[in-house]
Amino acid sequence: MEKLKITGNLRSNDTITRTIRMSGKNFDKISELAEKNKISFNSVVNQIIEYGLKNLDE
Questions:
Q1: Cα within 13 Å of Cα(24), Cβ side
Q2: 27: Cα within 13 Å, side-chain hemisphere
Q3: Cβ distance 7 to 48 under 8 Å?
Q4: What is the pLDDT of residues 4-58, one digit of tens each?
């Protein structure tokens, strides 16, 4: 399986606002990735979700 590579902000006009809950550990890791790559927290979350969905065993 190809590894996830975090890239610059991916903007889309097709967005939905939704509240989610996550562990503090995951929040901290995502925040670190966003800061390290100089992109938004939301962009990192969306890239992780897209990667997971593309590599999902169905």
A1: 0
A2: 5
A3: no
A4: 888 886 677 788 899 999 999 999 999 999 999 999 999 999 999 999 999 998 8
